[in-house]
Amino acid sequence: MNLSMKTVIKGYKYRIYPTKEQEIQLAKTFGCCRFVYNQMLAKKIELYKTEKKSLSKFDSKKYMTNQLKKEYPWLKEVDKFALENSIFNLQDAYQKFFKEHTGFPKFKSKHNHYYSYTTNFTNNNIKVLFDDNLVQLPKLGKVKTKLHRQFTGKILFATVSKVPSGKYYVSFNVECEHEELPQNNNKIGFDLGVKEFLIDTNNNHIENPKILYKYEKQLKKLQRQLCKMQKHSNNYKKQTRKIAKLHEKIANIRNDFQHKLSSQIINENQIIISEDLNIKGMLKNHNLAKAISDVSWSEFTRQLQYKADWNDRIYHKINPWFASSQTCNECGNINKEVKCLSIRQWVCSECGAIHDRDENASKNILKQGLKELGINA
Fold first, then answer.
1. N or C: which end of the chain has fewer CB within 10 A?
2. Of 74, 162, 83, 168, whose CA–CA distance to 119 is shortest?
3. pLDDT of 367 strictly over 70
4. What is the b/e burial string over 254-283, where b = at least 16 CB atoms within 10 angstroms of the residue's CB?
5. Listed residue (371, 328, 373, 374) closest to 351, CA to CA
6. Is residue 294 among the annotated active site residues?
């Protein structure tokens, strides 16, 4: 079987171990990017207030080169692409505010515990030396790296970050060839839940790992200890790193679970249907907000979407207001009493079919999705 190839952009993330000198250079770069971002934001606000004008990306870059770098010569000590990308990020945030009415860009604080900058690949300035476990980056030189997996392709840009736990990472966006999965005729619909993470049309019930719940006691203990410490003392900083490491561990376990499950679903099925959940609205329910945040449906569906795009699969979301739980998948009768979440099983008054609430919902989601796509069941 000849499998087709497709050009996609993939991300590869590795942990780096900079020397003390490289850590100083990274701190300078993070600081300079923050400084340029804040300076340009202040300039934009001032210009709009006084002249009702806005600065374009080109004008912002020109202002940084001709004005800021002359006024603050220490900006020349760091990677120029990192500074330019900081300006471009601000411009994107500004446009998003006006077009999508999102929050207005805020000034960046040096007390933030997450730092990052992005640099562009040009003239072979970024290299990944897999045999030597080294990564070469502009202004940093060769950095010791844990290169746990290899890639082939064209590096577009690299993002260097420092997370609250104190660890450093580098992420590469790579344009590469992807071998699509073989086509099949399998179709699946699934219902996402809190008690059970996923229930599909094959009657598979995937348990919710409840990762945050498992580490909640440990997290509370660390946070109680933190409250008793003097703010910004050495012990306080050590304790915040312990808490950050535990949060990082929880996030990594959740990501691992979701990547494995989403890959399995994409590998086995050609058409995947789910509900388009109104997660923002659901989070307003304070009784369920923590559980919904822990289960992270948005990230799971995001993974399904890009993996489906890579492999020529169809991933479709149906209207969130479709009565999937209340509709009998046998005869189409709607039982409004099933709105109550405590009802887990019910009998159809029209045809007598016995339904498990979530299994019935998944079958209705698949039927509705195929109908919207114009595909015969």
1. N
2. 83
3. yes
4. beebbeebbeebbeebbbbbbbeeebeeee
5. 328
6. no
**What are 261's two structure tokens?**
């499950």
Closest CA to 191 of 271, 305, 275: 275
358 is catalytic: yes
The interaxial angle of helices 80-100 and 20-51, nearest 10 deg, is: 40
- Work out the burial of residue 124: count CB atoms within 10 Å of its CB; fewer than 13 is exposed, 13-18 middle, 19 or more buried: exposed
Q: Is the pLDDT of residue 1 over 60?
A: no
This prediction has a pTM of 0.88
Catalytic one of 191, 200, 294, 359: 191
Tell me which amino acid residue 290 is: K
Query: What is the DSSP pairing of strand 196-200 with strand 127-129?
Result: unpaired
Could you say which of 79, 84, 200, 275 is catalytic? 275
Distance of CA 28 to the CA centre of its chain: 27
| CB neighbours of residue 103 within 10 Å | 8
136-160 pLDDT per residue, tens:
999 999 999 999 999 999 999 999 9
**pLDDT at residue 147, as a whole number:** 96
3-class DSSP state for residue 12? Answer: strand
Q: Give per-residue pLDDT as tens, 94-103.
A: 888 888 777 8
**Residue 237 is which amino acid?**
K
Beta strands in 225-344 (DSSP E): 271-275, 314-318
Per-position b or e across 26-43, b if 16+ CB within 10 A of its CB: bebbbebbbbbbbbbbeb
354 token code pair:
């016995």
**Residue 289 and residue 306: Cα distance in Å, rounded?**
26
Instruction: Quote the DSSP letter at residue 159.
Output: E
191 is catalytic: yes
Per annotation, catalytic residue among 84, 294, 358, 359:
358
Q: Which two tokens stand for residue 54?
A: 């806005």
